Structure formats: C-alpha cells, structure tokens
Amino acid sequence: MTTPPTLCDRGTVPSWIYLLHPPRERFVATITEEEAALMQTHAGYLAQLLEDGVLVLAGPTFGDVNTGISIFEADDEDAARAIMMADPAVAGGLMTPELRPMRVSFLRGRD
Where's the YCII-related domain (predicted)? Predict the structure, then answer.
C-alpha cells in the first residue's frame, strides 16, 4: 500500500508548529497591562510573518489554559527555532516555547 503524497512531499518547505505556554492558567482573563503590551508586540511579529509568507496560521486556545499555536514554514530546525525565539513573547520571557516539526497533510483549499 502506498502512502498518498502530502503537501511536504510535493516540494513545499517543511512546516513547524510552536506552542506558547502562558505563565499561568486563565492568562487571557488575568493579563496585566505590561503583559498586554508585550502581547501586542507579539501580534505585530506574527502579522509580519504572515505578510512575509512564513506564517500559515496562529491563535490562542481558550479555557483555563491559553496556549498559543503558530504553524509556519522554515527550511530546517535551526531556522524554525530562530523564528520562534525571535517572537517577542518568547524573547521577553513571558511565554515558554515548544517547537515541533509538523507535516501538513490536509489543508482546505489545497489539492
């Protein structure tokens, strides 16, 4: 049995996911002014990655644990880690990052 091709098998750049773990539960509901300012800078960073064609999608999860999720493209792990570590929420020490390689197997709007 052959495995159907994925988007990565079709010659696209590898995909990565980085998770941003907040400093406490209910982060969105308890965010301070200083944290909110840093998160605005984080949002600007993600907007620039999207404009540059690097970011695929990003957003927070809701509920008691507000993990941030960003799926993006980078040539290799070093490049992916550099993108993640440059995120102001990470560089500023607010969020704890977690990087994982990922294969986009299904994507709406793509063959």
Answer: 20-95
